[in-house]
# Entry
Amino acid sequence: MTVQPFLIEMKGISKFFNGIKAISNVNLNIRKGTVHALMGENGAGKSTTMKILSGIYKPTEGTILMEGKEVFPHTPKAALDYGIAMIHQELSPIFEMTVAENIFLGREPLYPKVHLVNYPKMYKDTKKMFENLDLSINPKKKMKELSVSEIQMVEIVKAVSYDSKVIIMDEPTSSLADKEVEQLFSIINRLKKDGKGIIYISHKMDEIFRIADDITVFRDGEYISTNLAKDLDQETLIKQMVGRELTDVFPERSPSIKEEMALSVEGISAPGYFENVSFQVKKGEILGLTGLMGAGRTEVAKAIFGMIPIESGSIKLKGEPIKIKEPKDAIKHGIAFVTEDRKEEGLVLPMSVKQNITLTSLKDVSSGPMMKRKNENEVADDMIKRLKIKTYHRNQLVETLSGGNQQKIVLAKWLLTNPQILILDEPTRGIDIGAKTEIYKLMDHLTQEGYSIIMISSEMPEVLGMSDRIIVLSEGKVMGTLSSIDATQEKILSLATANKMEV
Amino acid sequence: MNSQLSTNTYKETKGKANVKHMLSEYGILLALLGMVVVLTILSPNFLTSANMLNLFKQVSINAVLAIGMTFVILTKGIDLSVGSILAFSGIITASFVVGNDTNLFLGIIAGLGAGLLLGAVNGIIVAKWKVTPFIATLGMMAIARGLTYIYSEGQPISGLSDAFLIIGTGGFIGIPFAVWIVLITFAICSILLYRTKFGRYVYAVGGNENAARTSGLNVDRTLMSVYCISGLLAGLAGVLLTSRISSGLPQSGVSYELDAIAAVVIGGTSLMGGRGRLWGTLVGALIIGVLNNGLDLLAVSSYWQQVIKGAIIIIAVLVDRKRT
Ligand SMILES: Nc1ncnc2c1ncn2[C@@H]1O[C@H](COP(=O)(O)OP(=O)(O)OP(=O)(O)O)[C@@H](O)[C@H]1O
Ligand SMILES: [Mg+2]
# Structure
């Protein structure tokens, strides 16, 4: 057997931001034709390392070799020229441009001689790419018209289309439905056969064990280990990531449901989104709201929160009808909404951790118009500790936090309002397994204190593991309700797809 | 314990390794100092008390406008109408204080009120009717200028009360009133921006309007308020200018908005909203003032002055991009 050089060798890479360490002395070796999973808790340094490889950041120290030769991917363009493409955790498409324009950005096909963009060819090529991958997205649509999962798929297609040797996928499935995950996996398998190297980051354990060949673990910005996936089991892996044993992911739900009705939604409709939706949440109950992507779950939550106007039906709080025209009204009535899209609706990126945490509760940390600084600092530090948010200071800008830690900030912000009704839309998206467990425990704890929770989630284990009752939506209609005892994955899926079968 | 620890590390590293970071944070202050040093060496007339008084008076008008502009730009907006509002307020105040037996106080209030009113109209157009700030205030720029000419019938208003002129020419413990006004405005606005809930709203609305709305903030009222502040301060600048030049000129304040925007941008506030600082604006206004004054002293032709000023603005933004 001849010794083949690694496709990518990252050696002793460190990165400091303003003198503060993000990663130090990490190593990573990628073999040709394999999927290499990069694992670690939120803030472990996975994205930072990959941003170095793909030319977003310059390393403070360290060298990168590609097939044995040192390379300097110091700009994204340089990285692409070396054959390194990346799908970013935080997507940033150009919303006003079409799908095809986004995919061909910077390498538009031109008519010979005149050097004008050959749009027909661009659209035809994009269409072909999609057809090859069995995707049904219209290349002429503007990005802003696509759903989050479609945007994700476009980004995947774009990265693959560079025909790079190395493709980095930073949490590509965090907003994909099962069907699209399968599509992605078949794309990955094809890439493997072509001898490409895939670096795959995800917090979803089952995915990792399905597709990874090698697994490298980071912890606190440091390299811990690399193993063959077949030599690892989930427990060992988690232990390497977290640095300690982690028992049950889902806490035992202690019965906390009171008879008292907290919120009832009666026949609400919002044309184009959903119609005649009714359900009730009791005090201390966790209600799971599930269905396929695009079933209208998020829209129902938005309507309750005053972000989408409802045409008919009513919302009652403890039996009293309430009027909610905008989020302000909902907050006043003790409703909180941890939105699904943290960048668009959740966070003010250029503000600090502290300022984001207290944004919804400014009245509690001020007297009259004046802010109470000390009070605010305490409240923020408290939340940072309670949710184990990894930040070096409360004044760190949230835009420089790792994705999972950003998600925790959104959660912290809403917990601080002391809501009676907490709506969680994909609450653990991008959150590591340790923190997930913390959040589940917290949910359980909150319900015991009398909070009610409506949880929207596409992750089956989460829905099944945490909900007391499950409502399944499909195409904007309630298809059925399951109690936690009867609910199984099959039953949920058959309800979620019932509409689709008929047509 | 844990968070305590990380707080300490933060401070330590900040103290020791962050020359580069500090440089980019306080770079404009260094730039200002550098300019002062160079001009002091090049021109013996620069660092004299007479010239400094003159310089501060010149800067005061732009500083007041730029402070108001900072609020607007922080919300991702822009206010092109400040120059025209300045003229309108100036002419209103002037018309109230002609002759020596007039009610000074009423004149000043009328001028400030006029500015506030037009600012509020900007606010309504932007916040309630959702017209982009650029267009809304571009319209107001023409409207306010037109109203100024209509009100004054195109004529300057002079013969103002002696008492009124003291604002622009007098001083207290050797410091011109104009400078006091800037300092007080700056102090009040700093408190407003950094110590009140409202200040937080301003940053949040500019940083992510959607998230601000979802968090239950009153976005419309915040937008309303920043245009009111900008209008009010434009009115104040109008009163100041009228007093200093001892007449109300309908053509005053043309293109002042550009200097105000330049001061804000040089000061490190992002036109994309949500990022910026008030002290930077003050330094930005001083940089423009020192530049104007210094180039005059060095007898650089006014044509070249424009070229240099433009270049400085662009360089400032380029340097600032490194900051984030
Ligand atoms: N631009 C930046 N400025 C300052 N600190 C940063 C910056 N980018 C990342 N960091 C810090 O570096 C550390 C590693 O972040 P990184 O995004 O690599 O984590 P991650 O492993 O991808 O986590 P997640 O699973 O949450 O996505 C974090 O503590 C983060 O706060
Ligand atoms: Mg990451």
